[in-house]
Design a protein that fits this description.
The chain contains seven helices and twelve strands. With 303 residues, it is α/β, with parallel strands linked by helices. The chain has a single domain, classed as Metallo-dependent phosphatases (Purple Acid Phosphatase, chain A, domain 2, 4-Layer Sandwich). It has a six-stranded mixed β-sheet, with helices on one face. Strands 5-6-7-8-10-9 form a six-stranded mixed β-sheet. Strand 9 and strand 10 form a beta hairpin. Helix 4 runs parallel beside helix 6. The two termini are 24 Å apart.
């Protein structure tokens, strides 16, 4: 079986460089982020200056009203949907998980996630619980398998997905920075997410090869920030939960992205982790032997 792995696109239509494949995997961030980027850059600059009083939404509302934000969102979703339709036009199964730019977050009770570290992490945990990708993005497109918190058996292979994740996502990093009650509350929310994924792995057909899809790469694997303008420059920012999933359940492959600057492949325990990178040429052809449950060949496209 040949899998065409497509990396983060951010509104860029991919140039399909491989002719033969049996299915396509896209690991999120298909939507166009150009309209939002100026506000996020301003927000990051404020963080670097120690000013985190305003959220991205508040910065946007100062410049464009709620209607303007909605327009940007619809334009972004439209571009992402065009890309997914294009991938589906090849007539092969397309397995998809949403990225942090794909406007698929669930609802959160937190009004200002930038208020403090507790509200920030609570916001993301609540948002990560979205059980589906945005229907404006994936709805009614043939051949699309929305893999957000789902187990799909495609061509005799198990695919399990964890989308949206974009940071280290573990509650332990805030110990001592929040109250005991807040810490226990975060632990409970994190456990809810963990249990969803654990239960999916327990339900899988163990006779099949299993592929785990994570929008963010596992912690410590292809995840080091290399941007001097980023407040997290030099830090590892992969997903702690995805790391645990790989070490506990040992899927044959973990296909992930988010970290644009770190395309490549490496082992985490017995799991092979592949990050295709970013852009219209970010794609990898992965050939697997379903019967022997192993990877036979990997080809990164190199312009």
């Amino acid at each position: 079986m040949k899998i065409l792995l497509i990396g983060d696109l951010h509104g860029k239509k991919p140039l399909i460089r491989f002719k033969e494949f049996d299915c396509i995997v896209q690991i999120g961030d298909v939507c166009d982020d150009r309209g939002f980027r100026p506000y996020y850059k301003k927000w990051f600059r404020n963080l670097q200056k120690g000013n985190s009083s305003e959220s991205v939404d508040q910065l946007m509302l100062k410049d464009i009203d709620r209607e303007g934000i909605k327009k940007l969102e619809n334009e972004s979703l439209k571009k992402g949907r065009e890309i997914l339709k294009y991938l589906a036009s090849f007539g092969k199964p397309v397995i998809f998980i949403p990225g942090n730019w794909d406007l698929s977050y669930g609802k959160s009770s937190v009004k200002n996630p930038d208020k403090d570290i507790y509200n920030s992490l609570k916001y993301f945990y609540e948002s990560y619980l979205a059980k589906n990708s945005n229907l404006k993005l994936v709805g009614s497109i043939k051949n699309i398998y929305d893999c957000q918190y789902k187990l799909h058996e495609v061509e005799g292979v198990n695919f399990i997905g964890y989308g949206l994740t974009s940071g280290t996502d573990h509650f332990s990093r805030v110990k001592g920075k929040v109250s005991k009650k807040q810490f226990l509350n975060l632990k409970k929310m994190y456990s809810t997410i963990e249990n969803i994924l654990f239960n999916l792995f327990k339900k899988r057909n163990k006779k099949n090869l299993t592929i785990y899809l994570s929008h963010n790469v596992p912690y410590g694997i292809l995840d080091k920030i290399k941007d001097k303008n980023n407040v997290n420059n030099g830090k590892h920012m992969g997903s702690q939960l995805s790391k645990k999933i790989c070490l506990v359940f040992k899927p044959t492959l973990c296909l992930a992205g988010h970290m644009h600057e770190n395309p490549g492949k490496t082992k985490l325990g017995s799991t092979l982790v592949i990050n295709p990178g970013y852009g219209k040429n970010a794609q990898v052809l992965v050939e697997i032997d379903k019967n022997k449950r192993k990877v036979r060949k990997i080809r990164f496209y190199k312009p």
